[in-house]
Amino acid sequence: MTSERQAPAAASGHGGHGQGNHGGHGGHHHSHGHSHGGEDIDWAAMAAHLEREGELTLPELTGTARWLRGLTAGEGAGVRRVLDVGSGPGVAAGVFAQEFPGAQVVAVDGSAPLLERALERAAAAGLGPDRFTTVAADLPEDFGALGQADLIWSSRAVHHLGDQQDALNRLARALREGGLLAIAEDGLPLRFLPRDIGLGRPGLATRLDAVNAEWFTAMRAELPYAATVVEDWPELLRRAGLTPVGSRTFLTDLPAPLGPAARDQLHARLSRTREMMADDLAEDDLRTLDALLDDDSPHTIRSRPDAFFLTAYTVHAAVR
Ligand SMILES: C[S@@+](CC[C@H](N)C(=O)[O-])C[C@H]1O[C@@H](n2cnc3c(N)ncnc32)[C@H](O)[C@@H]1O
Fold first, then answer.
1. How many domains, in total, are found in the chain?
2. Quick one: which of 60, 94, 261, 282 has the most CB atoms within 10 Å?
3. Positions of the region Disordered (predicted)?
4. What's the CATH number where 35 sits?
């Protein structure tokens, strides 16, 4: 089922609901707010988490939008319609609306509560229905509801679709001639503490990455239409009939000492890891995680002076 919504006339406050969670340590959020296979995580419950993570990377998202603008004809002048596919709460979509003032931006997602939040954010930023709308779409079934666009951005969403090549093919077909498709899937996993933190076995982050990688593979295997493919994104874009025009990596580098928002995000990510991957983690690593998550522990991630937030995402762009 699909439906199109427009921004409410009045701005509303920050939704901030839900528990800031993260589907894995390595930078992936998982499962669906709708009834596909997989882990069936409640996306709506991840609203605060996705929104905070977006806000922590606002400078990078702005850099991305500006880079993409430079890849379009006339520095974005011809861009009339922008899609953010798998938009979540619409942080990136809001940035695109700012950086492409002549375009209407459409946030597309399968989770209605996340789209509500995207509309609230847009209204608070003064973006009316001429500038910002949403489309509720369960993909891949509802690809037809997307319409045509001059620029399509999709970040960490294609990996939630079983057949990633098919998803790119369909996104490519939704582009107008000369339009640009930009996909962000891989990058670098989060680093957030030194190798040796004076607690437990050194190297916790790399062990969390390893568990997350296995979990990610299992998650993908359960998706409808699951198909494995070499995740060479420029090549996949080429096979979708597009011409790759560049790949760029955007680094988020928040050094210690961290502010409260980044600490909240680390706490949320680690809680998520603790919750979802407990069975696959060693006892000593679970104890370390518990100490990092315990607000009463001297090791709590909320006050450790050595906590930082370092990660990166790679964007692959291709033109029709
Ligand atoms: C990891 S979040 C990414 C959000 C945002 N693009 C970002 O990079 O932070 C994945 C998003 O894709 C949406 N999603 C997952 N599977 C979907 C599907 N089959 N159809 C439509 N949306 C889906 C989720 O609701 C969620 O908002």
1. 1
2. 94
3. 1-39
4. 3.40.50.150
